[in-house]
Amino acid sequence: MPCQVKPVSDNAIALAPYAACDTNSRGRQYKEPPPDYRSEYQRDRDRIVHSAAFRRLEYKTQVFVNHEGDMFRTRLTHSIEVAQIGRSIARVLHLNEDLTEAITLAHDLGHTPFGHAGQDALNRCMKEYGGFEHNLQSLRVVDTLEERYAGFSGLNLTYETREGILKHCSPRVAAQLGALGERFLQRQQPGLEAQLSNVADEIAYNNHDVDDGLRAGLITIEQLDEVRLFQQQYEIVISQYPALTMRRIIHEVVRRMINCQVTDLIETSRERIAAANPRGIDEVRTAPASLIGFSATMQDFNIELKRFLRTHMYQHYKVRRMTNKADKVVITLFDAFLDDLQLLPPEYQTKVISQEQKNGIAGRARVVADYIAGMTDRFAISEHVRLFDISQ
Ligand code: MG
After folding, report:
1. 348 — pLDDT class (breaks 50, 70, 90)
2. In terms of domains, do 281 and 346 share one?
3. What stretches of 277-316 show up as alpha helix (H) in DSSP?
4. What predicted TM-score, i.e. pTM, was given to this entire model?
5. Stretch 116-145: mean pLDDT, rounded?
6. Do 223 and 351 fall into the same domain?
């Protein structure tokens, strides 16, 4: 088979008229010449993959702490799973696969160590100084915190990738974000690739939390009896394969759950797009509601699954014990650094001085929050030992 030259711009790919296309991109903050052999969104994706924040996702977790076991998902494997789901759906719907990949790979870059417990703790620490929100922090990572390029801070990503990263935002913060914040003030939708990435994230984490939770023994098959999405697939699998080992049954059921949700999402979104008939991305943005979504039945199933995980997994006493420790590590680190800047590495001390000149104590707190948010689980734990264990 002859080699095919990769298309240089998105125009060469069969995209739907309502898909994002790099030739119509709202562009980058700092003007750059177009890439020679990639599309603009491929370039975004490549910058994300080469970033320091992306590498650190390997040692950050969502529910479990990184050292608890090698078989659980990390933020890195989660992001790769979200990208897989997102890209598959984007291709079927003729949306921009490269943009979807860029958004999905970047969506968790701003997460703190220790998953939701770390984010909640840091948000409480930052209450007086503007708060902390992981979604906004992901944008901060790609807009300013990555230090890799000679000409600018951050990764200088396209508007569309940044739009996808910022899933939600309060009106107060949106008002400070310029063009990117406008849609929250005007109650508009983001592009379809952003809408898709958001749902792909949900499909990935709900289903893999079932898988990880069963493997960790935090939840049981019997408990999952109340979750219709699980139960329906479980019945089919054990009737078709009665002799299968439990390990394989779980895999097979979770695989089918993901497939059910993906199929429903494709079919429902296709119908909604056909009904709305947007002629371009601007009509997607001004549509009254999101065009990517589940059917009403699947939405019910999804809510049921989320509710189950909240009650039985995230509130499980073993998870609570871990999150309680994580909470304390983040709070003690924050207080110590805010109190005594000289405990920070020198480059952060310099940043504190410059931010303090601009924003006073809130500027100082923000640099401390950036430092802590950038830590992996294991780094936060060892930093805590270095600071508070006298024998170290
Ligand atoms: Mg995620």
Report:
1. very high
2. no
3. 281-285, 296-308
4. 0.94
5. 95
6. no
358 CA to middle of ligand 1, Å? 33
Distance 35 CA to ligand 1 centre (A): 29
Do residues 234 and 250 share a domain? yes
> How far is the centre of ligand 1, averaged over its atoms, from the C-alpha of 217 (Å)?
23
Number of domains the chain is built from: 2
Task: Report CA(311)–ligand 1 centroid distance (Å).
Answer: 20
* Residue 378 CA, ligand 1 centroid: distance in Å: 20
Report how far residue 183's alpha carbon sits from residue 274's, in angstroms, rounded to the nearest whole number.
23
Rg (CA), the chain: 22
Going by the DSSP 8-state scheme, the letter that residue 57 receives in this structure is G
Q: How far apart are the CA of 108 and the centre of ligand 1, in A? A: 5
What average pLDDT does the structure give for the chain? 92
Separation of alpha carbons 139 and 146, rounded Å: 11
pLDDT(2) > 50? no
Residues 44 and 158 in one domain: yes
**What does 96-150 look like in DSSP terms, one character per residue?**
-HHHHHHHHHHTTTTPPTTHHHHHHHHHHHTGGGT---HHHHHHHIIIII----S
Residue 33 lies in a domain: no
Expressed as residue numbers, the domain containing 382 is 322-388
List, as ranges, residues with CB under 5 A of the ion ligand 1.
Answer: 108, 201
